[in-house]
């Protein structure tokens, strides 16, 4: 049995992307197979396409895609499982999400919020699991604390802002786009436009938690802006990976610098997070407290156009690829 | 009413140290006054003497001393308190410990282990509270993990080694003294002699937790030695405060860099830690699982000699100053 999938033929520009046919993956014990309705693009896909972010061991190396939403199509033989064919689900994978079918450990699946289109649900897993893990699990963000979010118009940024608002944090966000900041303001975030300079002088009071995807020169500014007991979550290095560090700041203010990426995590850790997220966060989508932010939904045939839009940095929220004309 | 105390007259060498008379401190609501029997020296006292580590606000600025053991002498009027004059206690303070009397919040006191001389108990608070807070509370060290302890012959190092052994960690320790490493081996620690070079090439497997008082150039080596999910506890900067950092290591391995110092902590945090330590750690001293490591006990009149010995770095464990000829 064959299925269609987005395939990277080598490393390079968008010319290496094609839609092709690959074998439909088999279901092993403890796994379920999901028919994917929609799968969002991520910046990690661009890095993978350029050959700079290979899939971790155990995941498809040529098929990109870190998240998906769809319907359970098959479970392993007579395995006892909580899933039934037809269940609406979503999830995070180490690769292979941008295909007609994906095989996932049953404990790593998350029910799609009731009443939500699967093309919206596909924009949830990477952003909201990452933001939840970073802000709630790792940074232990508390009501009344001050939160600074870099790249506030990104999928991660808008997810973090919604979770931060729910927790009751006072929020600041940076972006090089005034238009994105204006849109992010709806989530209760005060904007800092960094199109013409840094952010440090625009932050007038120390902050308790920083969600950073920049690294590089921003690292030092982040350490300086943190209040005693502050936590810096490092989730990306868009501004570079080398930083001159004043360790006195870390010691004297008793800071925590926490590196966190989702993709290399093992099954146990993915399952724990999926369970916690199902209980604590999925209901918030059903009650309208949280919303996935979708920039646009493209038919999967337009995947190259999706890469170009993300590369041009003119998106607000997620670009979702849809396999279903009727979804 | 006057009392005797160690006093720093300005900043400089040991010539600024004298024993003098100062007013006996009054007891405010929620506080108790302790007659100090013994108080240990710390490297922080040397830094304070040189004018580089002033006492935090609210603590005596001229009287050094971060830890003490003694007997409760007075409680505030008729306050309900769990302490009674004569109770044997120990504790951590932001300053003023090297005096005949010290006034402490009642919740910050810890009972001295039963059957232990107060001159031994005086060597417990700073080392063991710091090591407990770092390894157990902050780093969440687990059985079977690999722990690297820098400056393994110090009071903190020997306390950390004992706690690490109790938790069931595999332990490595560095020191520039082969003699100190030989003595530290009794706590189950494999020694790395750094008298002639670095430690990185001597560590052949990644480690999960590092207790570091060095900083500086050791920072990069520490990050490289950590396993995925590893935690680096930064407690001192003996090797300098500036470090070129490869943020990729922090991000990719999902590391945590945690700065931690005791001295600036507020009353609430001190009280929480004292309570937890009383329940979880004090019994281990009473059962002989943990032992304070005392290099020597000096009469307080020899405080200058104590500074010189600590400065010469030829101590193993704590130098304790005793106010009591009969203790």
Describe the structure.
The structure is a homodimer of 327-residue chains. Chain A has 327 residues and is α/β, with parallel strands linked by helices. The first copy, chain A, folds into two domains: 183 residues, Medium-chain alcohol dehydrogenases, catalytic domain (Quinone Oxidoreductase, Chain A, domain 1), CATH 3.90.180; 133 residues, Rossmann fold (3-Layer(aba) Sandwich). Helices cover 27% and strands 29% of the residues of chain A. Chain A is built from ten helices and 16 strands. In chain A, strands 3, 4, 5, 6, 7, 15 and 16 form a seven-stranded mixed beta sheet that branches. In chain A, β11, α6 and β12 form a beta-alpha-beta unit. Chain A is globular. At the A-B interface, β13, α7 and β14 of A face β13, α7 and β14 of B.
Cα shape of chain A: globular
Radius of gyration of chain A: 20 Å
Stated plainly, the CATH topology of the largest domain in chain A is called Quinone Oxidoreductase, Chain A, domain 1
Can you give the mean pLDDT of chain A?
Answer: 94
Question: Quaternary arrangement of the chains shown?
Answer: homodimer
- First CA to last CA of chain A: what distance? 23 Å
